[in-house]
Write a structure and sequence with these properties.
The chain has 504 residues and is of the alpha/beta class. It contains 13 helices and 25 strands. The longest helix has 16 residues. It is globular. This is Crinkler effector protein N-terminal domain-containing protein.
Length: 504
């Protein structure tokens, strides 16, 4: 008896095959098929009773399936009239703290959001804290919906997903809820970490958050601090103002707090760097040496390094050409958007135009170069900054180069963002850096590729550490007088290039 396995899109999972009889009905056929394919990845985890069987391709397209007790005598005698067997697997990607896992597929008894969440929780249970329940997970129909600028709309728990997750390319997105927080020192009232996030249930308590923070930093800053010693405030503003009601009790439900990096909860602990903490037997010379080291570290501008969690698929510049030629030339960038939130921002996705492809082919030959400088010039809003951020991540994460990025940000209470990528998967980031400190940043990043974004001609002429640079992105409305040898003009319709032979 001939049959053909297909996915939920109707695409064959392999060539047509045969089963030996006699097989009286659909139930017998399902059992025989499952037994003959016990080691098949296509049927892994799929119960025989979940397989949908159709007389032929015509009835499959009409969605008229056979019942369990229906006779199959006389069916599937020829390859051309093979039975069609649909494998009910759903594709999804887990998004955990801005990191997007590779797409996987799971079999489901019922094609509903609730069942998918349970399957995702079971599949990735080891990666998620116990406080996160299956019902806490949010499901989006695809990556495009999740990455909408205003925030996508998740599917309700009782929604059907028959139309979604039919292929790897159109996988559903299962998002793990997370909470943002930052550690502060109780003595100096200064930040001792950057803003970070952990997977967290919306019904989790403050004590659970403290335990999660302790786990995250148990090998470093919280090594000698108990979770119960941490005090939790609603946000930075109430912490600084010491506003009434700003301190949360240990049994409080976190609820709406810490939803974004801008509204991060503040965790205040004891003096983390206290020289006398659990060191009663330390001698005076050792304490003096440690104090000197501590002060030197505090004087560094870029000192608090954190692990990068952005998926490399978001900045694979070598794949721009193939992506631009595809039917869907859009790259989703949820990780980049999250990384730059509050630090100059980044779109949730970008459309790959031929300009980007041409730009990358040209400038990659010049990066880095000891004397040649690259200037990207264009009208506002055409994607200069976006392209420069992609270059920064590509050089740091793919080519493993040290990269210093100096970014001018025109936002309320925010300017001059400096980011150092160490080329080993970590970064340090500071904001509101005085222009007079730019040399300090460069000194700490010796040997780094220097990328500058958003500064005008006058700023470059100032002796404050912006020059020399390797790549500069700036607006076309600025004066076009420049002595940099390579300058590309970037407009809405096409690319024009002007190359200067002088060296900077």
């Amino acid at each position: 008896m001939w049959f053909e396995l297909v996915n939920r899109n109707g695409q064959p999972l392999g060539p047509a095959d045969k089963l030996q009889g006699p097989l009286a009905n659909v139930t017998d056929f399902r059992r025989a098929l499952k037994g003959s394919r016990s080691s098949s990845a296509d049927l892994d985890g799929v119960k025989a009773s979940l397989l949908e069987v159709y007389r032929d391709r015509e009835t499959y397209e009409k969605r008229i399936s056979l019942a369990a007790n229906d006779s199959i005598e006389g069916l599937g005698k020829e390859m051309e009239t093979a039975l069609i067997v649909e494998v009910p697997k759903v594709w999804f990607q887990l998004m955990d703290g801005g990191s997007l896992k590779d797409p996987i597929c799971v079999p489901l008894c019922h094609l509903r959001v609730e069942d998918l969440c349970s399957a995702a929780k079971a599949k990735f249970g080891d990666l998620l804290p116990k406080t996160v329940r299956a019902s806490d997970l949010k499901v989006y129909q695809d990556l495009k919906e999740h990455g909408k600028p205003a925030g996508g709309t998740p599917l309700s728990m009782d929604s059907g997903i028959e139309k979604y997750g039919k292929s790897r390319e159109n996988a559903l997105i299962v998002e793990v809820p997370k909470i943002w927080f930052q550690l502060m020192d109780s003595d100096a009232h200064r930040a001792v970490t950057g803003v970070a996030s952990v997977p967290f249930s919306e019904l989790g308590r403050v004590s659970d958050l403290c335990a999660a923070a302790k786990t995250m930093y148990k090998g470093s800053i919280l090594k000698d601090v108990e979770a119960s010693e941490l005090k939790v405030y609603k946000n930075m503003k109430v912490y600084k103002d010491q506003a009434e009601g700003g301190l949360l009790s240990a049994d409080s439900i976190v609820n709406e707090h810490g939803k974004t990096s801008r509204s991060a909860l503040i965790l205040e602990g004891p003096a983390y760097a206290s020289l006398l903490r659990k060191r009663p037997g330390a001698d005076i010379r050792q304490l003096v040496d440690e104090d000197t080291t501590k002060r030197q570290k505090q004087e560094k501008l870029l000192r608090d390094f954190e692990k990068l969690t952005v998926n490399e698929d978001e900045f694979q510049l070598e794949k721009l050409h193939s992506k631009q030629q595809s039917e869907h030339p859009i790259v989703m960038t949820p990780g980049m958007q999250e990384f730059w939130e509050g630090f100059g921002d980044f779109p949730p996705y970008y459309f790959v135009r031929m300009e980007e492809v041409v730009f990358w082919q040209l400038i990659k030959k010049l990066l880095p170069h000891p004397t040649k400088r690259i200037v990207i010039v264009g009208s506002p809003g055409v994607g200069k900054s976006c392209f420069l951020m992609l270059v920064a991540f590509y050089l740091a994460c793919v080519e493993k180069k040290k990269v210093l990025l100096i970014r001018r940000v025109i936002q309320k209470k925010l300017s001059n963002v400096v980011v150092l990528f160490d080329g080993q998967g970590s970064y340090a980031r500071v904001t509101n850096v005085p222009r007079s400190w730019m040399f300090k940043a460069r000194d700490e990043a010796k040997g780094a590729v220097i990328l500058v974004d958003g500064y005008d001609q006058d700023a470059l002429g100032a002796s404050d550490g912006l020059e020399p640079f390797h790549v500069l992105a700036r607006r076309a409305s600025m004066t076009q007088n420049t002595t940099t040898p390579h300058m590309w003009w970037f407009y809405q319709r096409g690319v024009a290039m002007t190359c200067y032979t002088t060296r900077s």
